[in-house]
Specification:
The longest helix has 21 residues. Strands 7, 8, 9, 10, 11, 12, 13, 14, 15, 16 and 17 form an eleven-stranded mixed β-sheet that branches. A six-stranded parallel β-sheet has the order 3-2-1-4-5-6, sandwiched between helices. It has 14 helices and 17 strands. It has 427 residues and is an alpha/beta fold. 37% of the residues lie in helices and 26% in strands. Strand 4, helix 3 and strand 5 form a beta-alpha-beta unit.
Length: 427
């Protein structure tokens, strides 16, 4: 038995999908009883040189695919919102299964498209939209059956991870590391989509919907990128035994969800500190299983294509663990997954009185200093606090200038914290 497939797009992801389906078709038939055959491929330019042999398959007219009754499955590999949204909506409405790697589309329109798919009794699969080759959405489906997941987070953007790897391990400046990432094709000419955290934001929204059964407006999640990380901060972070990663996270609490996309410090003995280059890692925490960390390639032709083909196999096997269709409307709140933070404060050069004022404030707020440094009017520290970070920073800004503040992924601090009196004595 054969099943006809329409492929929308033949860029990096589309090419990887085509290679895997054509090379592994026989193996897929042995496993599922169905042989997948790509009938038509939508492209912008018919004459563009290709890495694969696709003679007779290319078209510039999407309707040749969307209106073809023989084609039962659509694989969308265009990216962006339009025209991908219109194509996917039409395909689902006409009773075709859809597989997509489009994180922005699913983050912004996933709820609507899922409803259309359910109404027309077809699948909408999007494993490749998060984590590249990591089969994280499949794993969440399985784990939710037996456990309550209360935290999801991780490194889910390969471009920023590559840039930070170069900055921390090779001493490159942000501009140098970004330029190299662009030369290698990891970053676009306009890198804002990655470096300002938009890509990670869309992926986080998809993960949170899957984990917490909530429809998350992407503009309700706090987002910070890596473009403001300074060499000065990196020097302290490295000296104190940490790495910095762009971290996307969501934490379920009693009355809502805390969530964010931001640079976060991780200890060198934490597995996340060893996730380098374009690799991704995703953490799940649950009541029964404790913590799982899933690691894999977060980008690339074949890794992403592999996730698409995994969705295809699920459809061919008619496999489906039903989502919990009860969508919660828990609000996104300001909060944190940690009580430990990196701070860099400007107290003005040689202004010891200003520093003592800061230290007095920290003591009043019952803040413990884990690591600290004071030089040329700059006070830098890793601190552990008992009050909310929002309240802390609001009060701190009234007496000094906060130059940088990052969360620290650190559950327990086993080392003895510094005493304020000892630090004041030194200065």
């Amino acid at each position: 038995m054969k099943i006809k497939i329409g492929l929308l797009g033949l860029g990096t992801v589309g090419t990887g999908v085509y290679k895997l389906i054509t090379s592994r078709g026989g193996h897929i038939r042995e496993s599922t009883g169905v042989y997948p055959e790509i009938k038509k491929i939508l492209v912008k330019n018919l004459n563009k040189p290709r890495k694969v042999k696709v003679e007779g398959l290319l078209t510039q007219n999407a309707e040749e695919i969307l209106k073809d009754k023989e084609i039962k499955i659509i694989i969308e590999a265009i990216g962006g919102i339009s025209p991908a949204y219109e194509y996917v909506k039409e395909a689902l409405s006409s009773g075709k299964h859809v597989i997509t790697a489009n994180k922005e589309l699913i983050a912004k329109h996933g709820e609507e498209l899922n409803e259309i798919a359910e109404k027309n009794k077809v699948f909408l699969k999007c494993e490749a939209s998060v984590g590249g080759a990591i089969p994280i959405l499949h794993q969440i489906d399985r784990l939710k059956i037996t456990d309550e997941i209360d935290f999801v987070g991780g490194i889910i953007n390969g471009t920023t991870n590559y840039i930070l790897t170069k900055m921390t391990t090779e001493g490159r400046s942000y501009k140098e590391a970004l330029k190299e990432a662009q030369q290698l094709g990891y970053a676009e000419a306009n890198p804002d989509y990655d470096v300002k955290g938009f890509d990670a934001l869309y992926k986080l929204a998809i993960l949170m919907r899957k984990v917490f059964n909530i429809n998350v407006p992407v503009n309700s999640i706090t987002r910070k990128g890596i473009d403001e990380i300074t060499t000065q901060d990196l020097n302290y972070i490295n000296k104190w035994g940490y790495k910095i990663k762009l971290f996307a996270w969501g934490k379920k609490v009693k009355d809502g969800i805390f969530a964010g996309v931001e640079p976060v410090l991780v200890e060198e003995n934490n597995i996340l500190s060893r996730i380098n280059d374009v690799n991704n890692a995703i953490i799940l925490r649950g009541d029964s299983f404790g913590e799982y960390v899933f690691v894999g390639k977060g980008a690339g032709e074949l890794p992403t294509g592999d996730a698409v083909v995994a969705d295809l196999i699920d459809i061919l096997l008619n496999y489906n663990i039903k989502d919990n269709k009860r969508i919660n409307f828990l609000p996104i709140r300001q909060g944190s997954f940690t009580d430990t933070f990196y701070i860099r404060l400007e107290t003005h050069k040689e202004n010891i009185l200003g520093l003592k004022k800061v230290l007095k404030f920290l003591k009043e707020q019952k803040v413990s200093i884990v690591e600290s440094s004071y030089e040329n009017g700059t006070f830098t520290a890793i601190v552990k606090m008992k009050k909310s970070v929002e309240t802390f920073t609001e009060k701190l800004e009234k007496i000094t200038e906060i130059k940088a503040i990052f969360k620290v992924l650190q559950e327990d601090i086993t080392e003895e914290v510094s005493k304020f009196e000892d630090f004041v004595e030194v200065i």
